[in-house]
Design goal:
By secondary structure, the protein is mainly α. The protein contains 12 helices and no strands.
């Protein structure tokens, strides 16, 4: 019986780690292939920082991410065990709380995480903590999608801390947590993309300005003491921690991207179409 217990646990943790690794490779790898391997001229001209990181930095991001996935997997495994023991607030059927709450719970998770991230992130920029915990992530001054999980082990623990926080505080369905996790990974990867995906005027629009951009987080990696938010630009605006040139920098990147596309020659356009 004791042996079977250990086998079951090993199988579960292996399954969790495999799923985390595959999701990460699918999201980060796909964006990396399109924006950093394909490297057509239009894409290059639209890059926020007009240089590609050295291969050694990309390898460091991938290796560091591997250890982050292990830490994430162990914490998620602990939450799964706690759920099986009836200690978390997970519920088995969507109908138990209704589809309205199911959707609301995902929104609540995102808002909780955005707040959690902003304040833990700012705390890790306190000089003693920065050197100990957060400096590893900031080695990526010109980040690629693989920087999304490039954390020091202690920071990885802080980052995955949102999962037990959710699990022990609000009623949630397993599928809602999965959707939240996929959303979080997608926004994290695109935030570290190094290319701007949003259109002109996005950062000054009365509604869209409350959502963050790749330019926003790229400036954080390059300039460090500004732009701490994750999904939204709410806390940075409320606390005055946006870089004063954020909107101007965003518009400059978008104009450069627009100009690159408009000024393509016919051979260059043919090259892009062929891939």
């Amino acid at each position: 019986m004791f042996k079977d217990f250990h086998i079951d646990q090993l199988l579960t943790i292996s399954n969790v780690l495999l799923r985390l690794a595959l999701r990460y490779l699918l999201f980060a790898g796909s964006f990396y292939l399109v924006f950093y391997v394909w490297k057509n001229k239009a894409i290059w001209r639209a890059k926020i920082q007009q240089r590609y990181p050295e291969n050694k930095h990309v390898i460091r991001e991938i290796v560091t991410s591997f250890f982050t996935i292990i830490i994430f997997g162990l914490v998620i495994m602990a939450v799964i065990m706690a759920s099986k023991a009836g200690l978390t607030r997970i519920y088995p059927g969507i109908s138990d709380h209704g589809y309205g709450y199911f959707v609301l719970s995902i929104v609540l998770m995102i808002l909780m995480h955005d707040t959690y991230f902003y304040w833990t992130h700012r705390a890790m920029h306190w000089k003693p903590l920065f050197k100990l915990v957060h400096k590893t992530h900031h080695l990526s001054t010109n980040p690629t999608p693989f920087a999304a999980y490039a954390f020091h082990p202690l920071e990885a623990i802080v980052e995955i801390g949102i999962v037990p926080l959710i699990a022990f505080t609000i009623p949630y369905h397993g599928l809602a947590l999965t959707i939240f996790s996929l959303y979080s990974l997608l926004l994290n990867v695109t935030g570290h993309l190094g290319f701007e995906l949003f259109p002109k005027g996005f950062t000054i629009h009365k509604i869209f300005k409350w959502h963050n951009t790749s330019t926003h987080h790229n400036m954080h990696h390059r300039l460090v003491k500004c732009n701490y938010g994750l999904y939204f630009n709410i806390w940075d605006r409320l606390m005055g921690t946006n870089h004063p040139d954020y909107e101007k920098s965003f518009e400059a990147v978008v104009e450069k991207r627009k100009g690159a596309l408009e000024n393509l020659t016919q051979p260059e356009m043919a090259e892009i179409i062929k891939g």
